[in-house]
């Protein structure tokens, strides 16, 4: 049911405030203002999915978009070029930190508000959904005096939350921590944070060179985006600094390959790399309405082969007034790899991908995203269908068990065919 406002009598200022506050109350991560020829459609992204919220009539469409641009510090006369802005204010006692983007499209300006929530980062690593084994691995990895630690995953997978949680853990009075970010997403007392401004030449690479002359103990790079930044980061980590950064890759093995593609020397990468934390977000089952059902033979077989356990029942989503289609919130799915000497030697020696895969996944050094996800399925935290939705089985599970890989891929392909048929 769409929210209906009294557009004739209610000021646009109040309507915008109400939309933002309602989005926060509903745990939305983004607010989308989508222009159409006759209206402005407002949608919230909740638990990863866009949900229709309101339909703003044509007469109010332009005024509402202008109001959002004003409070985010944009140029309201410019409608032909993309713009970025920010909103930092307090509404109804709620402190808001919002990133705003405006993009000209054929029907007007599409505006997206990203609501930044750092409450999870402030609560610490223990609250981020790591299994006990993975949490201990992360603590060991971040305790090293120097080297590079990477947090990987897609956009919106919670990388920044994990990175800031690690920084909170490492932030001590006797330690000099310097970050270079674009943008600085969360201000942390006791940490020196640099905002990248590429238009004046303050790039990641240039800033990193200056940071190395600032006597840092720990360096955090918001994201490794290019070859030069990757090489400087790796070199900084072997000269006595602990470097923490993010990169857009799927898993630990892909991360190693990506850095090598960025022309990072093999011997340097093998020496510098200390650990990789890969993650994705799965929808969390609503605890109020989830129900137990019998497992299918397919599910039982997959769980048996991956986790080596027999299971007879699993939880499935139902749906109730408290959730959306049986899901409420999200839970991270992790893969944590601590680099040991055997893997270092393999990287430096140019070991083929399949042999490196066996070293990473076949000897117990790291559990795959699929394994961690299925553990959370068995625990009733998420559903089997949700794990298959977010994990690229062919990429993440690899070639280790060809029979299992084919079974999983077959299931995924069948789902895609069903979806294509529904669209047609």
Oligomer: single chain
Outline: globular
Unreliable parts: 415-424
| Mean of pLDDT | 88
Q: Please bin the fraction of helical residues.
A: 25-40%
Count of DSSP H/I helices: 16
Structural class: alpha/beta
| End-to-end CA span | 26 Å
Strand element count: 15
Fraction of residues in β-strands: 25-35%
Q: What gyration radius follows from the Cα positions, in whole Å?
A: 23 Å
Strands ordered across the widest β-sheet: 9-8-10-11-7-12-15
Which characteristics define this entry?
424 residues; six-stranded antiparallel β-sheet; seven-stranded mixed β-sheet; disordered C terminus; alpha/beta; single chain
What does this structure look like?
This protein is an alpha/beta fold. The protein has 16 helices and 15 strands. It has helices spanning 12-25, 58-71, 119-123, 132-141, 159-170, 204-211, 227-237, 252-261, 266-272, 297-307, 341-349, 353-361, 369-378, 384-390, 393-396, 402-423; strands at 30-35, 39-46, 49-57, 83-91, 94-105, 108-115, 147-152, 177-181, 192-195, 218-221, 242-247, 273-285, 291-294, 313-316, 327-338. The chain has a 7-stranded mixed beta sheet, sandwiched between helices. α6 (204-211) runs parallel beside α7 and α9 runs antiparallel to α11.
